[in-house]
Each structure stands twice: as structure tokens, then as C-alpha cells.
Amino acid sequence: IGQPEQRTTRLYSHEQPATGPSRGSPGGTLPSANRTFPVGVALGLAWSAMGGEPVYVESATRRKQSGQGSIVCTGSLGEVMRESVQIAHTVAKRYIRQYSSSKQDSASEEAANFFEDHEIHLHVPAGGTPKDGSSGGITLATALLSLATQCPVLSQVAMSGELTITGKVLPIRGVKEKVMAARSAVGVDQIILSRHNQGQVTELPSYITQGLTFHFVDTFEEVAALALYKQKTDR
Amino acid sequence: IGQPEQRTTRLYSHEQPATGPSRGSPGGTLPSANRTFPVGVALGLAWSAMGGEPVYVESATRRKQSGQGSIVCTGSLGEVMRESVQIAHTVAKRYIRQYSSSKQDSASEEAANFFEDHEIHLHVPAGGTPKDGSSGGITLATALLSLATQCPVLSQVAMSGELTITGKVLPIRGVKEKVMAARSAVGVDQIILSRHNQGQVTELPSYITQGLTFHFVDTFEEVAALALYKQKTDR
Amino acid sequence: IGQPEQRTTRLYSHEQPATGPSRGSPGGTLPSANRTFPVGVALGLAWSAMGGEPVYVESATRRKQSGQGSIVCTGSLGEVMRESVQIAHTVAKRYIRQYSSSKQDSASEEAANFFEDHEIHLHVPAGGTPKDGSSGGITLATALLSLATQCPVLSQVAMSGELTITGKVLPIRGVKEKVMAARSAVGVDQIILSRHNQGQVTELPSYITQGLTFHFVDTFEEVAALALYKQKTDR
């Protein structure tokens, strides 16, 4: 069975927004700033000898698993990337627990226990393309957080950064290739990177950075604030 | 997706202290002697053909697991280092059980059972950099003890030493490179090593050891007494 | 992170006795015949192309595991030595069950079920040094028996012998090197070997055997009788 080198670049780029203005508001197209991916999806940036490429991370719940939540991942992920998934799982779990503990309603409590109570399936298309590395960290955690909160990720945002267990965002390599990859993704005009990558971006020629807004962050809290569309979907 | 060779040297070096003086005390900056890492983090020292390097060990709880506590580790750790994590888990578990058994309150009992009742996630950034060896023993156990007690580790302290199951601290190799690595970590001025490494430190030229305080220890009890900031964080 | 080739020769050699005379007896130093290792520790003898070396076996309980006791081992042990650990676990389990069944009190019953009710961690320092072979059998079982009974092992005793599941002690190779290794361990003056090794010991020159007492045994029962200090520690 051959391993197709599928171009997943446009996988979600022409999506209609999954969320809209609150009910009762007049219809019509949303401004691009409010367009989102489906819940559980986030856009990362990969880099290889072939150049950069947008990479979508998808997640979904598989089943209830009260008190023993786990995560299954697919997409020909290597050892390092599988560990990144574990880290993203731990970070998203702590984030949502802290975020929810400030509220007292039962919906918040359900959200707080989301990762403990579900088996999650995380996939990175195309399934036959081998992937590895730690730079997907923040994308993986953002996708999981979207799934847990049911808040979709803004589709104008791409991101790349390693994540540590305490939620710090480490720099990535291949900044130039990844920024060019972000340009190639329809609708993307914002890029989240580690503050430690700021120097490399400053050195890029303006024809590459033109029209893009860069956000340099230290922690996953900042990533979540920038990437998540704050409105919960109605399902 | 490339595997960045990230410098994690300054990952926590500019941290503000995670704990402060007790409530009600006058504000202001803490003296550096009271600055700490976040709870669950400790600073070790690695050594390779490339020289020495500070290495942070991070830990976090993943979920409740009453009576069957376990530990998951990430960070491209080799076989020997994975075994060191098991040893650190065993040693920290016994330490906290003995430490807590002297008190009678319910908080102490909860702490005593911490490792039995939680799945723990231990990570050593950068995720894509392969790591191995047994010299991280005391750092791993200190990070775990910090997590269990919620007492943070002093950020002026770096350490390197193999740990045995009974809590003895064995010597490490690459003393010179590791001491130089400790120098390079901002704010570090104390180093904990096995007593069996005392001879090698004595032979180092003074321009390397200048300004550093060395603690040579026999047991993990001494490490814990030197490294942990005795005040529990408020969370 | 380098893998230090640590000399663990003196790991426990200068230990103060872990147990003492019964309470109320006059103080003072114990005769060396009553000095012991910490509970769960026994001294074996290794042999390689580099010569012989004392090797300590350490064990500790990890957690309660009612009715499904297991054993985890660390210390870069090879396949054959891992199997030796399984055999030692089986032999120690049967030994303590037989030994305890003669008494009727609840403490004896708890001891009888010790291996069924605990996950045990067995470690052989130094962690980074690969070890293999079947000659550690009686040392492994003695360390486990010490842990289960809380009776420490006499620190004047070193031992080497393969163990079968029925408790028979088979001969080992490298007798000369191992006897010399035992000499190098401070305080050791008794060596336990299989009766089938008696011939090789007789042929050793007297400058090697001088001052040492040899015990040649057929079964693990004899090993336990010779090595365990019969007084339970007070903890």
C-alpha cells in the first residue's frame, strides 16, 4: 500500500464558519476575523527538507471513560510527536481545570473533568505521511482545548511552538519556511510563535512578512487567548 | 516537522518567585535566596560531548488514580533515564510517607498518599533532544517531592547525582562541565553533588568555582533539606 | 547526559548498623558480627573481564496491590538477570509463606501475604552500568526476604549463587575474582557459595582465602539462616 503524499493544505481553508453571531442577530457573512475551524481543529506549521507546510490537527471524543481519561493518536506520528501529544494533554487538562474552577456552575464542572472523563482521538492528516518533532506542541494543546471547551479556533490563526509541561512555549526551527507555509494557507493572517523566535522573524525580508501579524508568546495561556473564538458552539 | 535543538538554558531563569512571604507581610522583592521555580520543577545539569548544560525537570499531576499511582515520562528519555524516573518515584514516595507520618492531620495523610493516588507526568524539555543516563536521579526526585508537597524548589540551586533506592547519592561524571553549566544558569549560586565528587571539585581552578557554594551530600534527605523552599504555595 | 561508570563498592560499607540491641540494653558499639545493611539490601558479587566487584541489591515497596503483587526492576539488567529476579520473587514468596504458616498471629499472616499484597521495586546500582547473568539469584532472594520480614541482612556477609525455583543453589563462575571482590568490601568476612563451588575455593591460594569464612550451601533456606539478622527493625 503506497503512502500518498497528500496535500492537506486546503483541508479547512474554504470552510464556512462553524459558529455564527448569536441567535437573533441579522444573517450574512461573518467578517473573516470571526471565521473559525470546526471545534477540535487547530492549524500548525510543519517544516521539512521539502519546505514548509500547513498541518491541521484534528481531535474528537471517542467515548466516555469516567475518571480514567486517555488519548489515542493517529497520523503516522513519531516518538517525539507522540510525547508532544501527552504533554499537550497534560497542559490542556490543567488549563481547563484552572479556567473552570473560577466558575461554579455545573457546566464548568463538566468542562473541568472533560479530559478525565473521555477517551480522545487526535489525528494529524494526511494519515500516510510520517510526522515527528516537538514543534506541534501548542497546536496540539489548542486543538484539545477547543474540543474540551467547544470553543472553535479562529481560522485566521496559524501557530508553531514546543510546549513544556508547565505551559511554557519554546522556540522552533525553520521559521522562514513556516511563515511562508502560513502565507500559503487561505485566510491566515496571524501567526503565533515563541518569543524566542522573535529575532528570526525580524530578520525575514518584508515580502515574506507583509500582511501578516505576529504574536510572540511565553505561555500557553497567551496562545489560548489569541486563538480561541470565545463563543461556545450550539451543540 | 523538524526537531529543533532548542536551548532551554533560560527556561525558568528569569522567573518571578512562585511563592512569596506569608500574607500580611510587607510587599517588595524577595531576596534571591527565596526565589523559587514553579512547584514541580527542579534544575539538573547535563553533560555531553558538546559540554555541560542546565536541564530543567518538570512534573505535573495528570489525574486521580486512587491506590494505583503511576508515572508517565516524556522528553525523549533513554532506558537508563527512564529507570532513574522509576527510582526517583520510589524514593520520593517513601520520603513523603516518612515525613508525613510524623504529623497527624488529614492534609499530611493526603500528602503521604499523593503518589499512590495520582498519575504523574514528568517531562524534560526540550522534547526533541534525546537524553539518557543516571545522573539526573536527585533532580527527578526533588521535582517529584516538590509536586507532592507543593513546596517549590529554590531557583538558586542546581544539582546532579545518581540516586539509589535507599536514597543514597552516587557520584556523577563530567563535574567540570556541569559546574560550568550551573554558572551559565542565571541566578544559580549553589550546587548539590555527591560527597564522592568532592575531590573533583577541589581540583577545579578557582575561576570556575568562584562565587558558587557547593553542598556535598550522602543522602536524598540532605538534598531535600537544601533544595526545597519550606513554604507551601497557596493553591 | 553521560553515563558514569560509578564505583559502588563502598556504597554501604561504612554504614552504621540499622538495627541495634533490644531497647533497654546498655549502649555502645555493636560487635561487627551484628552490623547490618538497611532492610531490603543484600551484597552480591559480580564478575566481568575487568575482575570481580561487590554489587549491592536494593529493594523497597512501591505500593499496596492487594492480591496481585508484582515486582519492577531497574539498574540496566539484562534478560537473564530479569528472569533471576522473577525466580527470586517466587522463591522468597514461598519461603516466607512456609516460615509464617508455623505461627498463628496476624503479623505473621501479613508477612505471609507480603509479596501478594505489594508492588516491589528492586534496583541494582549503579543505574547506568549494564548487568546480566544468573549468579545473583540468592542475593536477589535474600534482599527480598529481608524486605518482607523487615529483618536486615548482616553486613559481614557476601554471597553469589544461582537459584532454582525449588530453592536449590547452583554454582557460579569466576570464583577467584568474586572472592577477591568480597575481600575488597569493607567489613565482609563471610562468603556464601554453592556447595558445588567448594572445589574451586579449596584450590585458591591461602593469601586470598585468609581471614574469610566460607559457607557452602545446597538450598536457599541455608542462605536465609546464615544471612538474615534475626531481629526485626523497629519501624
What helical percentage do the residues of chain A reach? 25-40%
Which chains have the largest interface?
A-B, 37 and 30 residues
Assembly context of the chains: homotrimer
Corresponding CATH architecture of chain A: 2-Layer Sandwich
Keywords:
homotrimer; disordered N terminus; alpha/beta; globular; four-stranded mixed sheet; 9 strands; 235 residues
Characterise the protein shown here:
The structure is a homotrimer of 235-residue chains. The longest helix of chain A is centred in the middle third of the chain and has 23 residues, at 79-101. With 235 residues, chain A is an alpha/beta fold. Chain A has helices at residues 79-101, 106-112, 114-117, 137-149, 175-184, 198-202, 206-209, 220-227, and strands spanning 41-48, 51-64, 70-74, 118-123, 157-159, 162-163, 169-170, 190-194, 213-217. Chain A has a single domain, classed as Ribosomal Protein S5, domain 2 (2-Layer Sandwich), CATH 3.30.230.10. In chain A, strands 1-2-4-3 form a 4-stranded mixed β-sheet. In chain A, strands 5-8-9 form a 3-stranded parallel β-sheet, covered by helices on one side. A two-stranded antiparallel sheet of chain A has the order 6-7. The first copy, chain A, is built from 8 helices and 9 strands. Chain A is 31% helix and 21% strand. In chain A, a hairpin with a 5-residue loop joins strand 6 and strand 7. Residues 1-6 and 14-29 of chain A have low confidence and may be disordered.
